[in-house]
Structure formats: structure tokens, C-alpha cells
Amino acid sequence: MDIRRAVLGTLILLVMLPLSVRAQSSIYRINVVGNKQVSRNYIIGLSGLEVGKSISSLAIEDAIKRMYKSGYFNDVIIRTENLPEGVSVEIEVKEAKTPEKITFKGNKHISTKKLKEKLTVSENSPVPDYKLFESKQNILTEYEKKGYPNAEVKTHFEEKAEKTTLVFDVKEGKKIRIKRITFIGNSAFSDRKLRRQIDTKQKSLFRKGIFIEDKLEEDKLKLQRFYRERGYITAQVQQDSVYTINDGNWLAVDITLFEGPQFKMGEITVSGESLFTEDELKDKFKLKRGDIFKFNKYEKSIADIYFAYQEEGYIYAQIADERRLRGDTADVQLSIQEGIQAHVHRINITGNEKTYDKVIRREMVLYPGDVFRRSKFLFSQRNIYYLNYFDDVVPDFAPLDNGDVDITIDVKEKAVGKFQVGVSYNARDKFYGTISIGWPNVLGRGYTLNLDWDFGTSRQSFNLGFTDPWFLDTPTSVGFDIYNTLSHWTGYYTEQRRGGAVRLGRRLSFPDKFFRAYLSYKLEQISYFDFSSSYAPPPYNDLREKEWPIVGSKASVAIERDSRDLPMFASEGNLNSYSIETSGGFLGGDENFIKQTIKSYWYLNLYKKIFVGVGKCRLGFLTNPWGSTMDIPFGERYFAGGTSFDGQIRGYEDRSICPIGYTEPVYDSTVTPDMMGRYPVTRRSYAYQMGGEAISVFSLELRTQLVKGQLYFSIFADAGNSWKNYHSMKLNDLYRSAGAGVRLIAPMLGVIGFDFAYGFDYPGSKGEWHYHFQVGPEM
Fold it and tell me: Which residues contact 211 (CB under 8 A, 6 or more apart)?
């Protein structure tokens, strides 16, 4: 029994109820008949009817609905009888059968396991008629998808040895594919062109040619849309015909079209406007007089007018558009009812269990009393997402009687923070042990705390950092870092840096709301020791000749525009920044240099944020206005290649791309020279990596999201180089590579990456493959 029969039966029953029942009489007794497996008490409890309680037509209707919904019954009838003592109620039921086993017969081309996945019934559970019907339809749909449109499914119950088995008896029929798709009435576009617009396809080498009725209905709408987007705004699919050919072994599909003329844009007239002038509204139209009337541009124009009103708070504005056709011209009449301007009444925050309301509210750019502007509403959502504390941020608003709105921001918190004990890897330090705590939302107040302790043969370091992103409840960030780092440069020396830094940042409203400025100062002590026996620098930069430790005093200023939708794995927007770091000079200290960095990252949403295009550019320059550039510390110079912090060019060894210097040979002047006046060489000249004073790195990437917020796959191409100085930079002198990689966001661990890339420009070779493993955020 389906729901329509149940409702019809209920209506008939209600009409026949005694007037005393309709007047809400009390129940004297309740009898249950027809039940075999379900107990009387359970049925009465499920109905909601009770002895001594009043009964009405509405109570009976609710009882029947509840009993059907339980799934235990195929039929329910409730009768009433007036007695002197009250109303006697009889509930008659027809129970649904409960099969211990479900089997299939006749299925050859779809496995039983696959068919069982399509069922809405299960073993050892009641099987009401409506669920049985749903299961049969699901099976038929699955057969239709496989090319068996004439499949039939029947069901019956078998009773053997007190066990009930539900049997699905399948007749698959012939597998029928589409031989041809023909269009009738088309002259503007060929059959071939139209076939490319639909998902229903003819059988071919690469097409299955399966017919699905629902898909054909969608295709008819796609065809109509295709025509209208090209100016045929009266085009229609008049009819379709699907029939068998070749003795019933193939299908033919005929689609009859009415194309009509191709229309051009005519006059636009506007009435009812007062907030904007008629000319201002006309300027928002993507179509101008004489243009082909492309319906998608027309719809976008109407949407832009709506957005213009919503941006001024007129969210109740109504736009009635009427198209008047004359010949091949379409005139447009817009009738506007602007309504009243909406203001924000209240802002509610829901779903936050750990994060304080204040942390979310301060990211809003809409406040109670403000005009409700659409752009600020969406920008507030973006700001909250950008905190990276939430899996989802859903903004909504509810209109009030006076036209104002209440805003609700519903968030879904995610597991944030990192606690890592184990092994990490990067391009400079290779593998090293680590204990790391990253807490980006301390106590739900938005503070960030980082504590890192790394230990290994190449690196030992300790770092403590803290940031308050809204110091004194202003859009100003304040933070500090304390650190002590030992780096062992194999074949060179050991470098130690210890000190601290203070940081200050500010959100800006000019030139636009995406800009931020940063200022930092670092004071550190630097030492070099444990020089390797193979360390042989040029005489002008022999660190062994200097007195250690020295002091580094550095300040940096950065300006940044960040319109990305997410700080990691963004799908749209861009990040552009310029920073300048000054060491020494007027700041004092013993290291002198200026480092400038330009970054430009762009993200293009290609398809529903599942496929994203990424383009990245990074430039860096080192100078020393207070002395020779040869005095710039080795650790500040640029070493590109692999997954280097300085410049990521995958497909090459880490930090392998940089200028090469040559040491001076050493001669033994204590002996007699030869006849040519030459002294014997005690140490020959050899090449060494001197590091660059200029760098440029470019990257293109196509990224797809395999598991939302967790797993990403990409193909990429990198190019870049590190030069001796910025005068040597040449964009035709780049190391190129291409490859593929994956990124996994692991809870409590962070981002784990693996790339496999081919470097094209190895000196003297055709190229090489390299893999790269890294732990940390995307570069």
C-alpha cells in the first residue's frame, strides 16, 4: 500500500467518523486485531491513543501516520464505536513480513552484491510495501544505467521451515544501446554540434551509448539553454521519440526542435526606480542595443541589478522583467519595486563550543545598526573562514516584521592545533627528530602559541612563539619569538643563532580591505665554529679569520594584500606582498645587508573548488649598501632547488641551484720554483656553492581535492634560478621541471607532502627524476 492510498483511506475514515468522535470524546477501550508478531501493547503505544484520553479525527490521523512510518505495517485501519461508557477503538493491522534472508534470481550482468547495495530493505527487518517498491525502482534504475531499459523485477516471499525469504526475480532482457541520435527542425546548428551539448550519446568506440530516460529529460533542457545562450530565446524542444530498430537490438532517438529567429537586443526601459537612475541601471546590462540576445548575459544583467540593490540594503527589491518581441528584436521592460532598506538588528553566533563569540564577532565587518550590505555579509564569512578554526561557516539572516534582519553565523569547529613527536624532514636539514606543539586558538581566545624542539645530526633548535591577533581589541597583531638554533653545515662548519624577535601587524582599510602591514625587529647572537678540514673559502670571506660571536640586528617591513579564501590550499583569490629586511647599518650589529622579497600567488577556481589553478612567482634581492656584497652571510644567500625554503624547484637536489665560486689554489713558496718560476701546488682550486644574491622562482599547478580538506593531488611545472647578483638575472636562464605530487593534512601532524618531478636542465645530461618529501605547509 503506498502513501496515497493510506491518505485516501484516512480521509474516507474521517468522513465516516461519528460526530461524537469529532467532538473529542474519551476513549473507553482499545482493541488490536490482525497482529501476529508485533505485540498489542507496542501497537497501542505506537498509535499514541490512550484509554481515558480524548479522541479526535486529528488524533486518529496522527496515529495512522505514525504506524505507517514505523515500517511494521502494510495496512492500518482504525475504527470507532460510540458506547455509553465512551468510544471503543479498534486498530486493525496487516503486518509487513520480516525476511531472514534476501536472494536474487535471474541477475547475470549485475552482481548480487551490487544489487543489494541498492536496496532500502534488509534482512531481519520488516519490509513494508513502500520500501519494497523503492527497492524495485532502484534495481530498475541500475539496470537502465547498464543498458537494460526493458528489465523487469518481481518479488515474492517464500516460507520454508518457518523461515521467510524475500526473493527478487529479475528478467534482465536485452542489452540495448543507442545506434543514432537525430535532430529534426535544426538549421542554425548541425546534428554533430547539438550532440556535443547533451550527455545522452550514440554508441561509439569510446561511448557506451546507454539510454537513461531521466538523462534525456535533462538533455532537453540543456539544448534549450544552448539555443537561448546564442540568441534563440524562443527555441524549444517540441518532442522526442525513442524507439527500437534493427529487430529491437538498437535504439534510435529523434529530437524535434523549434529554433525560431536569432534575436538582437532592443530598447531597455525602466520604471519604479528611485535609488538609481535609469542610466545607471542600464549600464549594468551586459547587452547593448544591437547585440545578439544571449540569455546567459541577460540573466547575469538582472542578477547584477539585484546585487546593486542588495549592496545598498534593499534586500526586498523585486524586479519584474518583460521581454517584448518584434521581428528579430527583443525589447526589455523592467518594473522595479525597491521596498524598504534593511538594517542589522542582532548578530547571533551558533555552533562554537570552544571558540569565544568575541573571536568570531571581531571578524565581522557588519554590526548592529549597519545597513545590511551583501558584500560585507559575504566578506564577514570569508574572514571567519580565514581563521582556519572551522570546517564550515554558514551565514544566514532572518527578516523581521519591520524589515530589518537578524544575522546568524553557524560554525562547525574542527580539530585545530598540532602535537607532533617524531621525525620531520626539510630541504636544508634533512631528517631530524622533533617535538612540536602548535596551538592556533589558545583557550578559544584566538591566540597562537608555538613551541618547537628539533634535534638531529644536522640541526638542534628550540623556538617559542606567541601571537595575539587582536591586541587590545584592535585589528593589530602583536607577537614575539625566542629561539636558539644550531645548524651543522656538512663540509663547512657549525652555525649557532640565538636571540629573539618582536612582531607587529595591522589590518588596513586602504587601498582596500585586503591589505595588511607588518613590522618586526630581531636581535640575535651569531657564532661559527667546528670548521671542517675541507672548509676552504676564498680569502675574502674566510669565517675562521673573524672573531665570534657577533651580533645581528635586523628590522623588516612588509606590505601584503591577501584576498585568498583560505590560508592553506586556497581555491580563489591572490596573495601579493613586498618585504624589505635591513640588517646592520643604522641598526647597529655586525652583519650588513638588505634583503628584498616580492611574492605573487594567484588561485583560480576552475570547477566548484574541486579543480584549482595556481600560479606563483617569487623574486629576491640581496644588497649591501654599507660594504661589499661578499660580506653578506652565507646563511642569508639564496640556494634554490628541490623544496628549498629559498626557492622551490622540484626535480633537482635540495639547495643545489646557485652560483658556483672557485677557490684560489695554494702554493708552497718555501721551496725552489721550477724553471718557469712556478711553485708547487699544495691545494688546487675547487668549485664551491657561494649562494646567490638574486633569485626568481615560478610555478604553475593544477590541483584537485580528492578528500575535502584532507587530501590533494596536483600536477605542476617549476622554473627558476639563483644568480650571483641582480645584474646577472636572465629569464631565459632558468632551471625547469615538471611532475606530480600529493598533500595530506594529518590531524595533530600538519601537512605531509610527496612530490615526484623531472628536472630538464641538468648540465651535460638529458634530465633526471627526483622525489621530494616534506613536512610543513605548502610553500
Answer: 144, 147, 149, 176, 177, 178, 200, 242, 251, 253
Q: How far apart are CA 385 and CA 389, in angstroms?
A: 7
Choose among 381, 367, 442, 376: nearest CA to 411: 381
Confidence band for 590, pLDDT divided at 50, 70 and 90: very high
Cell of 436: 612540536
Under 8 Å CB-to-CB from 277, ≥6 apart: which residues?
Answer: none
Alpha helices in 181-256 (DSSP H): 191-195, 213-228
Task: Name all domains of the chain by residue range, CATH numbers in brackets.
Answer: 3-95 (3.10.20.310), 101-171 (3.10.20.310), 177-258 (3.10.20.310), 264-337 (3.10.20.310), 344-413 (3.10.20.310), 507-775 (2.40.160.50)
Cell of 651: 626535480
Distance CA 669, CA 664 (A): 15
Assign 512 to helix, strand or coil: coil
CA angle, 754 as apex, 748 and 756 as ends, to 5°?
175
Burial 584-599 (b: 16+ CB within 10 A, else e): bbebebbbbbbbbbeb
Record the pTM: 0.71
**What CA–CA distance (Å, rounded) separates 652 from 771?**
9
Report how far residue 87's alpha carbon sits from residue 56's, in angstroms, rounded to the nearest whole number.
11
The SS3 call for residue 461 is strand
Tell me how far apart the alpha carbons of residues 566 and 69 are, in angstroms, rounded to a whole number: 44
Rounded Cα–Cα distance for residues 477 and 483 (Å): 20
Helix segments in 17-56, DSSP class H: 19-22, 40-47
Q: pLDDT tens digits for 47-84?
A: 999 999 999 989 999 999 999 999 999 999 999 999 99
483 vs 466: CA distance, rounded Å = 12
Nearest partner of 441 among 360, 520, 517, judged by Cα:
360
Residue written as grid cell 519494497: 132
Secondary structure of residue 683 in the 3-state scheme: strand
pLDDT in tens, 308-342: 999 999 999 999 999 999 999 999 999 999 999 99
57 near 79, Cβ under 8 Å?
A: no
| Radius of gyration for the alpha carbons in the chain, expressed in angstroms and rounded | 38
Question: What is the tens place of the pLDDT at every residue in 129-162?
Answer: 999 999 999 999 999 989 998 899 999 999 987 8
